[in-house]
Amino acid sequence: MQSVIYHAFSQKEAEEFDVQPPGAQRAQAFVRAFLRRSMPRMGQQALEDQLQRKAVVLDYFTRRKPKEKKKRARGLSARQRRGLRLFDIRPEQQRYKLFLPLHELWKQYIRDLCNGLKPDTQPQMIQAKLLKADLHGAIVSVTKSKCPSYVGVTGILLQETKHVFKIITREDRLKVIPKLNCVFTMETDGFISYIYGSKFQLRSSERSAKKFKAKGTTDL
Predict the structure, then answer these.
(1) Quick one: which of 192, 184, 177, 183 has its CA closest to 218?
(2) Which tens digit of pLDDT belongs to each residue from 167-201?
(3) For 28, what's the count of Cα atoms within 13 Å in the CB-facing half-sphere?
(4) How far apart are CA 192 and CA 51, in angstroms?
(5) How far apart are CA 139 and CA 154, in angstroms?
């Protein structure tokens, strides 16, 4: 039955259907050319090895488009920000009363952060929360310092950098206090917290992810 269905064209049938039976050399050349087009990455020896097998599996070859690198918009560098004076507080804005609403917002922020400052709240829990909290708007006082002129300075914290606090006093004076060799206090609803500036030389964004270890007394 199989020989009836599949059989080679006779000379008469080939002339009738206008089919030219390919010779062995033409067939071999066609197969090799087809393999080279289908698998361009394979060498000649690899193609010859493929022809020795009984079955040849042809994979669909797609050319990968080169990925275009997305250009990220670069922000301003620290030097450029300083040159533009983006974070400078203008003299007409250095008014203590202007930042009292900021202090009220900060107190509400701390109350929500500590789940309400109640008399039975543990001071250690408040201290741990304040170490990672945003201090902009807090009233900060310098209680100890190796520089006597810093002691007693009190005001609302306007800016915090890695090494300094910028504080606006009640006398409408902007003070830049270094953290190094200074001890600061903050009072919130009767709770007083101490900050050792020498161990606090971090940006506010870095403090939120840092794990602080409990230590004993710390000298200036």
Answers:
(1) 183
(2) 999 999 999 999 999 999 988 887 888 888 888 88
(3) 6
(4) 86
(5) 7
Structural tokens at position 196: 């050792």
User: Does the pTM of the predicted model rise above 0.90?
Assistant: no
Are the CB atoms for 140 and 186 separated by under 8 Å? yes
pLDDT tens figures, 68-78: 777 777 777 87
Task: Write out the H or E segment, with its range, that includes residue 11.
Answer: helix 11-16
73, 89, 101, 94: which is closest to 172 by C-alpha?
94
Contact 212, 196 (CB under 8 A): no
The residue whose two tokens read 């009640």 is: 170
Contact 165, 89 (CB under 8 A): no
**Which of 174, 179, 203, 161 is closest to 98 using CA atoms?**
174
Cβ neighbours for 188, distance < 8 A, ≥ 6 positions apart: 107, 110, 117, 126, 138
The angle subtended at Cα 212 by Cα 191 and Cα 136, nearest 5°, is 55
Query: pLDDT tens for residues 95-144?
Result: 999 999 999 999 999 888 887 777 777 777 777 888 888 899 999 999 99
Using alpha carbons only, give the angle 87, 112, 118 rounded to the nearest 5 degrees: 125
